[in-house]
Amino acid sequence: MFIKNITILGGMSRSGNPEPVQRIDLNMGDVVSIVGPTGSGKTTLINDIELFADRNTQTGRCILIDGKRPPLEYRDNPASNPIALITQHTTFLSDLPVEDFLSTHARIRAKDSSQIEAMIANTLSFANQLTGEPIILSSRMTELSGGQTRALLIADATVICDTPIVLLDEVENAGIHRTRALELLRQHRKIFIFVTHDPRIALLSDFRIVMQGGSIVKILHTNDEERQFSIKVSKLDDMLSAMRDKIRFGERLTTHELEGLA
Amino acid sequence: MKLVICAGPATTGKTSVLRHIIQKLQQVQEKAAFLKIDVQYAEEDELFAREFGIPTRKIYSGELCPDHCNVMVLGDALQWARREGCSILLVETAGLCLRCSPYVDGGLGMIVLEATSGTNLPLKVGPMLSLADIAVVTKIDRVSQAEREVFRSRIQYVAPNVRIREVNALYGIGIDPLVDSIHQTPDAWDNMLLRGNPPVGTCTICVGKKEIGWQAHFGVVRSLENQNFYRGE
Ligand SMILES: Nc1nc2c(ncn2[C@@H]2O[C@H](COP(=O)(O)OP(=O)(O)OP(=O)(O)O)[C@@H](O)[C@H]2O)c(=O)[nH]1
Ligand SMILES: Nc1ncnc2c1ncn2[C@@H]1O[C@H](COP(=O)(O)OP(=O)(O)O)[C@@H](O)[C@H]1O
Ligand SMILES: [Mg+2]
Ligand SMILES: [Mg+2]
Predict the structure, then answer these.
(1) CATH architecture of the domain formed by B2-184
(2) Which of B31, B118, B200, B206 could form a disulfide with B86 if both were Cys (CB 3.0 to 4.6 A apart)?
(3) Ranges of each domain in chain A
């Protein structure tokens, strides 16, 4: 599936005023964050994208793909839908073993059956780079931890669905390796849209869409200063997770933990 | 008068889907009437009358199977909706037994399934799915993309000609294509027929014999080791 870009045409804020930002173009390869306080309309914005809103949702926004209204086929044929959405409530309900589940899904998406094994192996290795404890193919889907579940959701959407657009709603809370996730995701030429409160993800994005009162109020491109600073932010974040691990394993913390943060 | 029959297992979102449909119909000044068929309890009629001010009714099938009750009352219901000055009759039915389907040739048949019910459900609901015109999949906000896709492909496997529409019935997302299908449905005929064949009508359990074991029954019976066979004259 070849898509070059998607366009968000602005609608109305919650109070009924025209949205300050009336057009955003996202190009293949862009990694974008949506930021804003709770209730500012972040989830609503990605729902608009996933639905290909056509001025028929509460926001009045319109979504274009390659400058045109997306074809109806996207709604009719699951294998042609260009969007994968991972919501805050998204989970796996299936209690199949991981391997059976992935192969069921891979069979639907694979262009020919010789690819299936590789798809499963790639999904698993992708997911296992994001979690602390590796996922085992024979464990049941419902036995996976929160972090493992998120990691597998992201890996499945990226590798098996292989959709050109992936939407992720607040994935940071699940304890996955975020820098690694962004590195891996950047190897795939897709549009990734993160709803996030996480400075690390925000600074590793190309730009961030700022929400307030139900509307898009501005676009901030990550500048050189922020890009430089993101290295330190990541370092600080790693230190915090190292401290979390120490606490978890019953160790004491000392003032040395923050050494190296020049 | 257009006829829409909406079936599906309990709590899949039939009422939520119909609520958004009624809203969209009202926006284009279409008058819909609503009939709910259930076994022993329902309140959708009061809900919709209050919410939308449209003519509504309910009927409890009680001893009858709801699909059979549907066949009995549908003729009267169409006349009632006509007298009320409506152009569309929406019927919500529980469709419980999975051997019949409540759909009628000449009307639009819509099954509502929830994506959260597990990926094998489409394989289990029989003619209620395979004889529908549209399968509406609700609660897509709750499950992974992978399970959504597996669910869809299972529906396509059982019912290759049924159109599938995914909706989030809480927010009314994906309802427009359903409303379009209603607009495209021709008016109901005078002498309508149930779509599909009813199951065998010789069940001695249905007529009240409670003894356990096929030896106590006659007509078309079945043992654990044999397929259906006939016992009696
Ligand atoms: N998250 C989510 N919840 C939904 C969706 N659709 C329906 N629900 C919820 O599911 C529950 C049952 O919905 P109803 O519309 O009453 O279901 P029904 O099929 O009419 O149920 P009965 O008539 O009792 O068989 C309600 O709590 C709805 O709010 C959906 O798309 N997403
Ligand atoms: N442009 C808008 N117009 C009307 N209501 C909106 C708009 N944007 C968001 N909302 C409503 O505001 C509420 C909060 O939005 P949500 O997207 O859940 O916020 P967030 O994900 O940022 O916490 C929701 O009920 C949503 O329907
Ligand atoms: Mg949100
Ligand atoms: Mg109901």
Answers:
(1) 3-Layer(aba) Sandwich (3.40)
(2) B31
(3) 1-82+165-179+189-222, 92-162, 227-262
How many cross-chain Cβ pairs, A to B, lie less than 8 Å apart?
70
Angle formed at CA B132 by CA A56 and CA B57, multiple of 5 degrees? 75
Q: Is B13 in the pocket of ligand 1 (CB under 6 A)?
A: yes
Burial B33-62 (b: 16+ CB within 10 A, else e): bbbbbbeeebebbeebeeebebbbbbbebe
Task: Give yes or no for A88 touching B (CB within 8 A).
Answer: no
d(CA B112, CA B218): 36
- B179 Cα–ligand 1 center, Å: 19
> For residues B138 and B12, is the Cβ–Cβ distance under 8 A?
yes
Q: Say how far apart CA B171 and CA B182 lie, in whole Å.
A: 20
Per-10-residue mean pLDDT of chain B, 233 residues long, equals 94 96 95 93 95 95 81 90 96 81 92 91 91 94 84 91 91 87 90 79 75 81 78 74
Ligand nearest to the CA of A169: 3
pTM (2 d.p.): 0.82
